[in-house]
Design brief:
This protein has 315 residues and is an all-alpha fold. It has 5 helices and no strands.
Length: 315
């Protein structure tokens, strides 16, 4: 949008005043920042530095607008700055959303990893418990074997000592031996059953551990694929954004050139109309006042009229 020369000069003067006030404000902010030295005033110092940066940015935009008003009598740079600020805000919002999504996904992955770690720890505890039980079984089997050896030795000693005794005592000893052998057989059978049971449990736990490891590997691969897809989408969106900005700049340039051509045509037409009006007004003034070429024609007509009047009087 173009302005007249007077409007552009007025706006330029107002902008000069604004830039001076912004410079004064920036200087006062720098003085306040230099005075703030306490650790408790860190937030105030950060706020003042942000205000100073905003003042510098506004002063730069005011300077650009001032130059544009003086050179082109337009304020398209202000519109461009507003559009750039809106685009930056949109880009920041998109980045924040992307960061938020990545943080949420990382939290879910961390939670899954923690759950997997807890399960692996449980499996390890169960493995060590099975190992302890196996060790206890080995100790018990060794104790049983020692007991068996001791019992056999005792029975042998008793048999050697009581060979001279009666047949009744021999029968009793045989019965006792049979009972002891039965007990030993039962204990060995129980020991073997418990051993097989623990071995089966150990195998099942190992299978579960392998399954959990495979599942965790698959989950990690899926999450990595999702992260890669998100990254690819982000790059594609950034490329689209860059392409749209380039097209927007080209279209804006074409619109500005067309607008300038239309303004030039309107100005030329207005100048032509004004020139024709001035020429018509000047011709009217010349005709009414009898100036220039129009004066000679009137003088000749007046002379002819006077001569005709004299001739009529002579007659």
């Amino acid at each position: 949008m173009s302005l007249s020369r007077i409007q552009s000069l007025r706006l330029a003067a107002a902008l000069e005043d604004c830039s001076d006030q912004l410079d004064i404000l920036g200087h006062t902010l720098t003085v306040q920042i230099s005075r703030e030295r306490d650790t408790a005033a860190a937030q105030e110092k950060a706020r003042l530095t942000k205000l100073r940066r905003d003042c510098q940015y506004i002063s730069q935009q005011v300077f650009k607008l001032h130059l544009e008003l003086e050179e082109k009598q337009s304020f398209s740079s202000l519109q461009q700055a507003v559009e750039e600020a809106g685009q930056k805000k949109k880009a920041e919002n998109m980045r924040r959303e992307a960061k938020r999504e990545l943080a949420q996904r990382r939290q879910t992955v961390q939670r899954q990893q923690e759950e997997h770690q807890r399960k692996t720890e449980k499996l390890k505890d169960m493995y060590w418990l099975a190992k302890g039980l196996k060790h206890q079984l080995n100790e018990e089997s060794s104790k049983i074997a020692t007991k068996k050896k001791i019992v056999e030795k005792n029975t042998k000693l008793q048999l050697q000592q009581k060979q001279k005794e009666t047949s009744q005592t021999e029968k009793l000893l045989d019965d006792q031996l049979e009972l002891l052998q039965k007990q030993l057989k039962e204990e060995t059978r129980v020991h073997e059953k418990s051993k097989t049971f623990l071995q089966n449990q150990h195998k099942e736990l190992q299978q579960q551990l392998q399954q959990w490891q495979q599942r965790t590997k698959q989950m990690l691969q899926e999450k990595e694929q999702q992260l890669n897809s998100v990254r690819c989408k982000r790059t594609v969106n950034l490329d689209r954004l860059v392409e749209m900005r380039r097209k927007f700049k080209e279209m804006e340039q074409v619109v500005m050139e067309d607008r300038e051509e239309q303004e030039k045509l309107c100005q030329q037409q207005a100048e032509a109309r004004a020139a024709t009006k001035l020429q018509a007004w000047w011709r009217g003034c010349m005709v009414r006042r009898g100036l220039g070429s129009f004066k000679k024609a009137e003088v000749v007509k007046k002379g002819k009229k006077k001569k005709e009047g004299k001739k009529k009087k002579k007659k």
